[in-house]
Amino acid sequence: MSLMAPKAKKEAPAPPKAEAKAKVLKAKEAVLKGVHSHKTKNIRTSPTFQQPKTLQPTDPRKTAPRRNKLDHYTTESAMKKIEDNSTLVFIVDIKANKHQIKQADIDGAKGNALIQPDGEKAYVHLAANYDILDVANKAGII
């Protein structure tokens, strides 16, 4: 066990006498006058505590950029449907119906929906005047 000499504490430099005297007089005046202000209490209306959100975080919450999840959907069978049948396959919300799917900005000749346990797929057959590969490329599927 090594014995070390205790470190001397660094004291703040003493303020000039005029400043110190003014500070003491101000404190004396405050004691004589008294404190008459009332600090307003923050009223909590909810039993759950809300953690305050920081507006300028020191570091981002997500450090790594998001990877492309579209590769998961460009399977061989989906590519075969695109090339052979000029059909695009989209995964849509499970509660979306055919009318809502048709309202999307797709000028399709025909469309059908397939509901599976993992989600709903919308098959959109494009009109003949569209180049299917060009549309799929713009949509980011290919």
From TrEMBL:
Residues 1-22, 34-68 are annotated as: Disordered. Residues 20-66 form the Large ribosomal subunit protein uL23 N-terminal domain. It holds the Pfam family Ribosomal_L23eN. Residues 8-22 have a biased composition (Basic and acidic residues). Component of the large ribosomal subunit. The ribosome is a large ribonucleoprotein complex responsible for the synthesis of proteins in the cell. Binds a specific region on the 26S rRNA. May promote p53/TP53 degradation possibly through the stimulation of MDM2-mediated TP53 polyubiquitination. Belongs to the universal ribosomal protein uL23 family. Component of the large ribosomal subunit. Interacts with LYAR and GNL2. Interacts with MDM2; this interaction may promote MDM2-mediated p53/TP53 polyubiquitination. Directly interacts (via BIB domain) with IPO5, IPO7, KPNB1 and TNPO1; these interactions are involved in RPL23A nuclear import for the assembly of ribosomal subunits. Interacts with IPO8. This is Large ribosomal subunit protein uL23. It comes from Microcebus murinus (Gray mouse lemur). The lineage of its organism: Eukaryota, Metazoa, Chordata, Craniata, Vertebrata.
